[in-house]
Amino acid sequence: MRSMLITSWMALLMIIFCLTTDGTSWHAVAQKNSKLLAGAYAIDITPKKFPVSVNGGMQDRQISEVYDPLHARCLVLDDGKTQVVFVIVDACMVPRDLCDRAKEIIQKRIGIAPRNVLIAATHTHSAVTLTGVFQSEPVEWYREFLVERIARGVEQAYQQREPARVAWGVGRDPSQVFNRRWYMKPGTIQPNPFGQIDQVRMNPGYQHPGLLKPAGPTDPEIGFLSIQALDGRPIAFLANYALHYVGGVPGLSADYFGAFAERIKQLLNAEQVKPPFVGIMSNGTSGDINNINFAGPAPGKKEPYEQCRIVADSVARNVFAAYQRIANQHRDNVPLAAAEREIELGVRLPSEADIARAKEILAQAKGPVLKTLPEIYARETLLLAKYPPKVRVKLQAIRVGELGIGAIPCEVFCEIGLEIKAKSPLKPTFIIELANGYNGYLPTPRQHELGGYETWRARSSYLEVHASEKITAAILDLLQEVAHSAAGPGSRP
Prior knowledge:
Strand 17 and strand 18 form a beta hairpin. The chain has 11 helices and 21 strands. The termini are far apart. By secondary structure, the protein is of the alpha+beta class. 48% of the residues are buried.
């Protein structure tokens, strides 16, 4: 009996020796036999030096307080042939050059091609300035810090890959989205910064007497992708909702996007799992959508961050209800695919008369901080005059099974997202905006005719009037491309 036990132990040791002497670990063996691998990691990107510039308003804010930490939430999926990466960053906007540099580092370190990496901002208005808009200019040291943190976060998520399975679906929460652009009665809209009268107004105020009707639709859908280990342990949950941001937070904050990450973790009972679960909320096509019902009475005063928690709880509960309906549908035999394309778009450059008018306005301005909209937009006019007549815009599509995900580097009007969803060959589909760069607002041609803040020419809104039509066509082409890809192109060059 003893000799048989010794023989058995020797046989087991020989198996272990064969599996490990070539540098292959037990974990690697499990990966080799798995159809899908996934890893997720949320890396802290809270600045270490203060004060820092925070953009998102007409004037710069210098902030030294941290209300809640900022993160870059990273997710890596690997089907054995193709690898795709999602990085959702707690930032107002992440410019193209930072995204490209981070992707280059990722490729050097772990071999994933840039076309398979999606990097997007949440659009919190309580994060460090990364690109110049209005009177906020980039914090240079933080830009360098962020590039390295994104790359490190993706690298950690990649190292944590394990056999996994995924499922996807769509929830609904119409209670938290309202179109912020309103048709107004004649005579109730003041001249815009260029001296013209618009037909619509952004954020007109609660029960304003001039209100007629919203100028566009809303999208109540919450698209989601659930990722779990083979034993059912939650790894990550990527959601998408067309809500601009919430606000009402002093200091640096991830806004409701961070609150959602914590709330969905609680609902999934994933607070104690190892490696730590990563909840992710990406921004949908919310260029003209906010959380304010101007048709109703003004709400009572809330404590800081209270509204963020209210919105996050509502959205998380509704998407969790949808998740429960598909919880038994997770599978590991899903194809991955990614495609990207650059298109060239025109820039609405100011004329010589526009430039002369801007110089005259600024000559009369008092002090270094500009106070009025004409002054602020006069400065934007002179800065935009330095832009080239055409810019190249990067677009992307990713497929996870039958789920389609488009990526657009703009603040996209809601109706554009609805059109793409309706026409996409992949069902469901959702769009992540402010992805892989920043090219300002994206209204439709009709919305350009109506005017309003989102159309006013500045570094925040400069693409040609018909840009939305060209982008929509290109995104639908890319979705067709990944939909007809059996497994997508190899992720390594």
